[in-house]
Every structure is written in structure tokens, then in C-alpha cells.
Amino acid sequence: MMRNARTYPLTRNVARVLTNAVVGLLILATVGCGRRRTPSDTLYVVIESAVRDLDPRFAVTNYDVKLSRLVAPGLTTTDDPSLEPRLALAARIERVDDLVWDAVVRADARFSDGSPVTARDVVFTYMSAMDPSLESLYGRGFRERFAAVRAVDDRRVRFVLNKPLATLMLDLDFGIVSAGAASSDRRFPEGRVIGAGPYAISGTGLDRIDLTRNPYYYGTPPPTEHIVVRSVRDSGARALMMVGGSADVVQNSIRVDLVDEVVKRSGIKLVRGPSTLLSYVAMNNENRYLKDVRVRRAIAYAIDRDSIIAAKFNGYAVKATGLIPPSHWAYYGEVARYDYDPERAQKLLDEAGYPDPDGPGGEPRFTLVFKSSAAQFRLAITRIMAAQLRAVGIGVEVRSFEFGTFFSDLKKGNYDLGWMQTADITDPDHCYSYFHSSRIPTAKNKNFGNRWRYRSADVDRWTERGRRELDPKRRYELYAKVQKRLARDVPIVFLFHEDNLALVSSRVSGYRVMPNARLFGLATTRKQ
After folding, report:
1. How far apart are CA 74 and CA 486, in angstroms?
2. Which domain covers residue 2, as residue numbers?
3. What is the DSSP string of 315-360?
4. Would residue 187 count as lying in a domain?
């Protein structure tokens, strides 16, 4: 077991060198053939998976959400380097009392068909999302938050809350769509949602979305008139499209260990920024071994995050101490930390009652199944972590699946270990979504976020108070307690926050990477 662990990094490094060499040759060949010159009025953006629906009410995937906000922004937005919610379609948000808030729509807000954005449209958006018959992913959360959403007049919308809600400004970052343009079923013909963002949908096709500048947009007009978004599933193909000039922007869709190679050999620019996403190892806290916190801590000590960041991410990540990234206002860093310490990991396993039966290289203490998506880069890192766990005596069987199957298993609790990534952590209320015991998936609702089945009465109480506490200082103190307890209990292994990395054409300027990894930076991008 120890012998295999020592030889694994060499195999990994050789594979990396070979992969980089092959990609380098392809890049050189592509450059040698000359770069394609695309029209200067059109940005060509490549993403890794197909867009399903740009209607914010039915957006499911990350790319659905990211692109939907270009078409249909909300009353507020977090598309800002600070991540602090700011006004978008709302001219102002007014507090009536702790349970009643009014949002006043901007007088100059227009949909892409020229019609004004009114309170009726806001009510239509939220109430249709809350209607169980439409099965919006956001319906349950809104029903828990809002007792009523109603129009006071043409521009004033009243939100009546079930309880005081500290996250209201964030909840208003939900794309508003046109009530008048929707069909009788409250959806949009051919999926062409009408919103009031900087761009409007001008065409859809297989693995392609066409956007055109909205002439009625209330903000600064985008410098580039058209955007073509293509989904290309192969990472190598995406890299070659950038090098060959048929793509202008690729964000977080090129293997991180190949980014420097692509930039060095092609002259393409790298735009880098911090991320609010967390990569983590999910641990099923109901597993016979993993229910013991000493075993979970041992796993955290056994994973060498520094070497993974250096070897696989080329340094483009920062170690995590919890769910919330260091750049966030709610971050609290005085918590238990789990730097690489295999000896300590082995002692904890001994204390937990799982001694090594026959010493290094023999039989394991026990065996866990480590599940991963079949994506090559993710699977390679899963295997590295598995080798590190084997080195402390934990038997590991790696199994890879198509992402949908893998994610379904995690929601059902059909796993021991699994490597995942969170949504963007824009507010510490995500601690409630991921760790409150009421958010353990059930047969009726498999989409709850506490897929590790963690239970803590204290964390339940603190996160409940945190979402109602309106005083920022007191709220910070509550989430500091939450972060300290989660670091002690290790319900999941907090690995690292991967940087947001965008490769942009030398013809492109003004592109900004947002911490939430959304694509609103396209609205400020100019192409020569």
C-alpha cells in the first residue's frame, strides 16, 4: 500500500508531461495553420455543457443560471467583485417592517421587446415560480420565505415574509421575465424568454444559443452587438477552438493543468479571479465507519491538498477551512485545520478502533467506495486522493459514473465518499442549505443539500437564527460559531476554492471574471 502510494506521483507526473506534450503539439499545429478571424461584432463563447433553459424560473444547470442573467436580471444582482447585492431592476428597496418590504421598479427598465418592466411582471415571475404545478426548482424555497408577493401600484411590489429574512437582498437576485410575452401556460414559446438584460435571445439550436444586444437596456449598452454561445463537451476541442481563433472566451472549461500550456504557446490572455465555489469530499455520515468523527478527521489529515493544488491546479486554488471562502465578508478563519499529516491520520484511525491488521502494504483497516464523475480531470484527482487514503491504511475502491448518475447516488445516500463542488457561496445562509438537518434529502424531496446527512442541534439553531438576524455584526458572530463547529465535526472534507480562470482572445478587452463565476463580464467586453 505504501509502496503504491510512493510510485503514484511519478506515474501522475509522467502522464501530465505526456498530456501537456500532446496538447502542445496540437496547439503548435493549429497555430501553424493560421488563426481564423471571426467578425468583430460577435463574441464566440464556448462552454462545456448544453444550456437547457434560460428562463430563470426553470434554470437548472450552472450555465442556465449564468447565461439567464444576461437575458433577465433581477431586482438586485450579486454580479459584482464584492459579492454584496446591489440594485439592478429595482430603483430602491424599502423596509416597511421586519416582515414587509417594498421593491420599487426602475422607471427606465424595459424588456427586450420594448415594453416597460412593471410590478405585475415581478409578481408574475415570483408567483409562477412558487406555483407547485410549474415545478420550478426555486418554488419550495420561495414558498418558505414569502407569504405573499403583490403589486401595490405599477412600479411598487410588496414582499410579505413568513419570518424576518436576512437574505432578502440575495433572494431578489432572481431574473424577472415578461408576463405579457408569456404563453397561456406561463412559459415562453420555443424557450425564447423575454427579459430586461443587456442581451436578448435571437436564436437557439443544437448546442448553440445566439444573443443580440437589447436596444432597450437601461444600463450601459454592451460594446459587442452579438454573442454566440456554443457547448463543446471535449476539453481539448475547446482549447483548440481558442487557439485557432474560432472562440473568444472560455471560462473554467479548460483543464486547469493545461491552462498555462495553452497561454504560453498561443499568446491567449488569462484572466484570473478568486472563486466562491468550494471543492470538497462528501462523506456519508451514516456510514458505519464515517459516522465516527475520528475517521472523518483522519481522512482530512490524509489528503495532501498542497500537492494536489501544485500538481493538478498549477497553484490556481487556495486551501479551504470551511464552506465560506477567505475573500467573503462572513469568513472566519480561527478554526480547526487539517494540514497533511498521515501519521496523525493513522493514530486517529487506531483510536477509532481500526488498527492496521498487518502493517503497511497489507490488508486495509476497512474499505470505502469513492465515487466520482467520469470527467478525466476530476477522476484523476479522485485517484490521487484514493492513493493518499490507502497510504494510511484505508482501502478505497474508485468508481466513476456519468455525472447525472453520480449526483443521483449522492442525493440518495448511495455512496461512502464522493468528490463534488458547491454552487457559488454568495451568502453564509448556504450553511443552512448544506448542513441543517431539515435539509437531508428525503423520498419526497431529493434535491435538499445536506447529502452527507450531518446532524447538529447547535448548527441547526445557529443557521436558523442566522437567516433571520438583520444585524450584520450579530450575523457574522453566528456564522463564526457555525464555521468553528463544522471544522470540528468535519461532515465533509473542505478541500480548496478553485480560482476562476478565463482564457480570452487577444482581440478581446474588458472581460471581467466574477467571484460567482457568472458570465455578466460578457456585457462589458469589447472585440477588435
Report:
1. 32
2. 1-72+197-273+502-528
3. T-EEE-SSSS-TTSTT----S------HHHHHHHHHHTT---SS-T
4. no
Residue 212 and residue 353 in one domain: no
Say whether both 48 and 158 belong to one domain: no
What cell numbers appear for 249 in the block?
A: 472566451
258-271 pLDDT, tens digit each = 888 888 878 799 99
Give the span between the Cα atoms of 143 and 161, in whole angstroms. Answer: 9
Tell how strand 269-273 and strand 500-504 pair up: antiparallel
When divided into structural domains, the chain yields a total of 3
144 shares its domain with 216: no
Beta bridge partners of 503: 250, 270
Which among 158, 182, 206 is the end of a domain?
182
Q: Are strands 269-273 and 249-251 parallel, antiparallel or unpaired?
A: unpaired
To 5 degrees, how large is the angle CA 322–CA 328–CA 333?
A: 45
Residue with cell 480547526: 336
- Contact (Cβ atoms closer than 8 angstroms) between residue 12 and residue 384: yes
Contact 311, 16 (CB under 8 A): yes
**Model confidence band, residue 23 (pLDDT cutoffs 50, 70, 90):** low
Q: Would you say residue 239 lies in a domain? A: yes
What digits encode the pLDDT tens for the residues 262-296?
A: 888 787 999 999 998 899 999 999 999 999 999 99
In DSSP notation, 463-484 reads HHHHTT---HHHHHHHHHHHHH
- 220-252, pLDDT tens digit by residue? 999 999 999 999 988 889 999 999 999 999 999
Dihedral through CA 70, CA 75, CA 80, CA 82, nearest 10?
Answer: -160
Given this model, what pLDDT does residue 34 score?
54
Among 428, 421, 235, which residue's Cα sits nearest to residue 317?
A: 421
When pLDDT is averaged across residues 175-191 and rounded to a whole number, the result is 93
Tally Cβ neighbours within 10 Å of residue 401.
Answer: 16
The yes-or-no verdict on residue 347 having pLDDT over 50 is yes
Look at residue 3 and tell me whether its pLDDT is greater than 60: no
Q: What is the tens place of the pLDDT at every residue in 133-166?
A: 999 989 988 999 999 999 999 999 999 999 999 9
Torsion angle, alpha carbons of 231, 236, 240, 242, to 10: 50
Which pTM was predicted? 0.81
Of 141, 125, 163, 56, the C-alpha closest to 447 is 141
CB burial string 208-242: b at 16+ within 10 A, e below? ebbbbbbebbbeeebbbbbbbbbbbeebbebbbbb
Q: What is the mean pLDDT of residues 470-488?
A: 96
> % helix / strand / coil in the chain, to the nearest 5?
35, 20, 45
Is 334 in the same domain as 480? yes
Do strands 366-373 and 500-504 pair parallel, antiparallel, or not at all (unpaired)? Answer: unpaired
